[in-house]
Amino acid sequence: MTIRKLYEILNENIPTALSCEWDNDGLMCCPDGNREVRRVLITLDVTQDAVNAAIERNCDLILSHHPLIFKGIKALDGETPISVKAIELITHGIAVMSFHTRLDAVCGGVNDVLANALGLCEVTPFGEEAIGRIGTLPAETTAEEFAKNVKNALNAPVVLLSDAGKPVHRVAVLGGNGGDDVAVARAAGADTYVSGELKYHSLTDAPEEGMNLISAGHFHTEFPVCQALKKMLCELDPAIETELYDNYKIKTI
Fold it and tell me: Residue 24 in contact with residue 67, Cβ under 8 Å?
């Protein structure tokens, strides 16, 4: 399967119509659209380490969640980190496909994977752009116990809990930066909201607002979708070799 053909198929499975208007993703780098896809590196972020790994492993493609190029590049002069990566990718003939907010919103994407990892049932979309998910736990638990379960399920080094004293039953999730959707989650009927990043004042106000908040890390709430992307590629073409690349470098000290 060629780069162009694979992107065409992935576009059908993860349609651009689901992307937020402000987003920029898709086929970010394509030195040769007719190159056969034999080996793919799947990662959350196209960091320099990920590019180096793709070169070392003779990959044809990097498949990521966060876009390689989010804002415009003014010059490929090797003077900025993005231009350095772009030059190296083009030099080695490696393509990059990024699926961002449409992967958040699509059925089976970031937030369905997150909801499943946390054991939610009867999951449905919430929010104006239907990116978040809301569901129920099979049995009520305390906020502290649920926060521990979130930490373990996502293999997160730490989670932040703002305990409003409510039992956890109806849970909203939004991977990554969900700081602007606290009120939306509350309006959807959630007693607990889990996201990657939440604002300080939201966390401090949570007990007064009456909803438990859990901030579990941007990376850790989104990285599980990489396994779903791996599964998707294997089903599309079992001959394609795939490797998950965990490029989380932030330390808890």
Answer: yes
What CATH number belongs to 107-222?
3.40.1390.30
Contacts for 164 with CB less than 8 Å, ≥ 6 apart? 143, 191, 206, 207, 209, 210, 211, 212, 213
Name which CATH class applies to 3-102: alpha beta
Contact 245, 50 (CB under 8 A): yes
Q: What is the pTM of this model?
A: 0.95
Asked if the domains at 3-102 and 107-222 fall in one CATH topology, the answer is yes
| Domain ranges within the chain, ordered by starting residue | 3-102, 107-222
- Average pLDDT of each block of 10 consecutive residues along the chain (253 residues)? 97 96 96 98 98 98 97 87 96 98 97 98 93 97 98 97 97 97 97 98 95 98 98 96 93 82
CA separation for the pair 48, 41 (Å, rounded): 13
Check: CB of residue 110 under 8 Å from CB of residue 65: yes
How crowded is residue 71: how many other Cβ atoms within 10 Å of its Cβ? 8
The answer to whether residues 149 and 119 touch, using CB atoms and an 8 Å cutoff, is: yes
In three-state secondary structure terms, 160 is strand
β-sheet bridge partners, residue 215: 160, 195
Directed axis angle between helix 81-91 and helix 48-56, to 10°? 10
Task: Return the sign of the alpha-carbon dihedral for residues 224, 244, 99, 80.
Answer: positive
Sign of the Cα torsion 172, 112, 139, 200 reads negative
